[in-house]
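As described in the Methods, two query proteins were run sequentially through the folding procedure within a single session, without resetting any intermediate state between them. The first query and its resulting structure tokens are shown here.
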Amino acid sequence: MPSWSTSCSFPYIGAKLVTHFPGNSAVKLPGVHGIYVLLNSATGKPLASIDATEMTLYRTACTSALASSYLSREESETLVMIGAGSLAPHLIRAHLAVRPRIVRVFVWNRTLLKAKLLVDKLQGFNGARFEVNANLDEIVRLGYIITCATNSTDVLVKGVNLKVFVDNMAAVVEVGELVGASERGVLKRDEIAGNLVDVVKGEKNGRTSLEEIIVFKSVGSAAVDLLTAHLIYDAYYSASGGAEP
């Protein structure tokens, strides 16, 4: 996933290399490993080598929370977390940061032990009460905000009359849920309500009523990876007093 800028004010090139080995759980290793390399686009000089797995967790969670700040209800009090993998704690913390009225968090996972471990780890974070619940249908009905982070190929959450937003339009042709909906004739490309950038810029309306059920689907982008890597590099550079990493 390469990205670059030739702007004098943002002279960077970046590339992310990722491997996906779902069977790694059997040997107690993450299923995804990655590395991100940041270079100067004016000279080609390498600037930083970053753990892309960790970077992507933060980037994905922050993008989701940014979307929530525009699309979810401000008075949201209950969050449902579907999945208890590496991304789950990042998503929970990010959503609680933008929706501080959340006081209850339900965690569902196929393996209940993983859900319990996550609940024990985060119990009391931001003053919220964390609970494990094996009844997915029940907690979906209770959730103001539902965030999903699983590799499941089965349908976990069903919905009708949805208003769909994406982080960028590549999601329409790259994300399984949207591709499947398009192939079944359930969702057409022109029925996508907008992308996150347009909502943030005010060019598209986000939530317009309390009754709307809104779905935000994020696929990620090389451009956002580059911005994230620069933020990490800049923070390190500043913290080191301007010394080269």
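Immediately afterward, the second query was submitted; its sequence and tokens are:
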Amino acid sequence: MGCCFSKNSKRKSTEKEELTQTTTTVDATNNTVPTGNNEEPPKQYSWDKREKVDPKDYMLDGLKDATVGRLPGKLNGQQFVIQNCENCNIFVFDHSATITIDDCVNCRIVLGPVKGSVFFRDCKDIKCVVSCQQFRTRDCKKMEVFLCCATQPIIESSTGMKFSCFQYYYPELAFHFKDAGLSIFNNNWSNIHDFTPVSGETNWSLLPEDTVVLDHVPPPDPESEFKSVRISTDLARSIVPMTKGGRRKESDESCLFVFFAGDYATANARKLIDETTGKGFVLIQTKEVSMRPEDVNRVFQNNAEGLVECITKGPVIALELNGEGVVDACKNIASDIFSGTKVFVSDNKNTSSRDVDNFFNFADMQMGL
């Protein structure tokens, strides 16, 4: 049997050593022993460094008689699932991608802003506060929803559904709306589409205007992990403006008031709401949309001059206010409080209804409503 340390073997070994740059030592029997090499470690890719996600952190499943949920910063835009819960108080104080709620009974639920859809399926006796891009229910019974929805809410094979305008506050909520890409001024809470209407029956209705959120969705238990979250349902503090929506207007006189993009557009709109509601006028609806030059001419018609440049800076915020004398009141507020701000205000009550219809019909078309 040939020796494994023949010349040929040594030459091959030497060639291999040169290729792999392996260092060697000689043991007591004169045998060559490899001691290591300088090979580069395997490459690491970005997905190798990602923090492992536990699906259980993004799900509530099979709970009963519990106060549960997620504190701010725990979801950070991830999707979330709630299912098979009974008689629970559920608080999701964070923004998320989508949320599905399946097979839940007799639960009170608060959901922070959802960038995509909120979908309730096979649920019964639910009272909830929801803000989202899309809202949908299927095979649900007896739900009370305080809603902010950027698109038209849809119910399907659902009965006993009642809706009201979103009324809620916690300190991080405004930032969560922004993170979710939602505008507080785009709320179609009362514009419900029943996908499966039944002749002679009404599957949905609006809650009374004086409905108090906390009578339906109570605050977190003081002994729970959510006791540190400072919530409020006071209308003056609600992040989303309280609108009358599809309820019957109390007056035939409405006024269109439009703020153009700027550093204080949102704050100015909130200031206007405070001023006008303080005088007894009613906020009917709001919208925040982008406009093109041709849109300005079509919407504002004879008043379009000088407004085209304003819409190039960003979306406009429009408000419909209602009540006897509201047009004159808004004109006075514009000159007294917003004199240094570019705004549009209906000029007189004879044409103000046309102003309102022109703008909000355009906005609904832009948003696909």
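The first strand starts at residue 22 and ends at 26. We note this only descriptively and draw no conclusion about the first query from it.
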